[in-house]
Known about the structure:
It is built from 20 helices and no strands. The protein is mainly alpha-helical.
Amino acid sequence: xxxxxxxxxxxxxxxxxxxxxxxxxxxxxxxxxxxxxxxxxxxxxxxxxxxxxxxxxxxxxxxxxxxxxxxxxxxxxxxxxxxxxxxxxxxxxxxxxxxxxxxxxxxxxxxxxxxxxxxxxxxxxxxxxxxxxxxxxxxxxxxxxxxxxxxxxxxxxxxxxxxxxxxxxxxxxxxxxxxxxxxxxxxxxxxxxxxxxxxxxxxxxxxxxxxxxxxxxxxxxxxxxxxxxxxxxxxxxxxxxxxxxxxxxxxxxxxxxxxxxxxxxxxxxxxxxxxxxxxxxxxxxxxxxxxxxxxxxxxxxxxxxxxxxxxxxxxxxxxxxxxxxxxxxxxxxxxxxxxxxxxxxxxx
Length: 348
């Protein structure tokens, strides 16, 4: 009711003075605050009817369209700003973001570079360039831009996480740990930072440190699904399947509609030769993600272990039908068939 009253008051002001742009702005901003982007966009269009050269309204409209995934409309609004003001940093920067989102690397880079000519001390711009090069796999160039961003703002924990992710992909695990640690120091309530640090410790087999980090994630956000899964993986890698099984079951309780925990749990049960339990869990996962060649293949594998080749063939064929170009599934099927034939030959 409170929201409706504010909107009604602003509309009364607009009706009493229909040429006062500020009332439209206030209404549009209020809509944005309420996440009512459609009405915000319509209100800004009214602003443009009164002041068609309103740069800020055009920028805001471009941003709204971007968030609504109306990318071509967003590009048009930002280009309209550039026609009015060829040195508008925000439009070049935002155009770079739009083109990055639609995976047009060349135009994204071109607009970021134009923005850089206008402001070469903006850390967000260097981070955006880092993301851009990271997306195309140029990790060295991405790292350079992130480092430039840190020189301008050494308090941004997200930038340290980005550098740490790159170091990890490049195999520099110790450096990745140092950067994750810095991110955690800067933002001790950042569950994602501690999750990443825990995974990095697990990668170098420092499992005690890894579990300490996962414990901090649980303290920050006990419903963080990925943390329970990652902690379980670390316990499993440390040959502690009992802890891993308990954590994965808890992850399933948190979000029963995600397949990852089911698959990992079933994999561990297979390692422990608890085939019937594993089979039921794989089948539950296949109900969550229907037509998954991977899960169907895993079910086929279980049936082989249970010496039920008829059912194994059934699931392998389903998997191959869904992924006819997956040579790995075909190889598994062929190996199973050869194994079956060899078993039969022993009895002849």
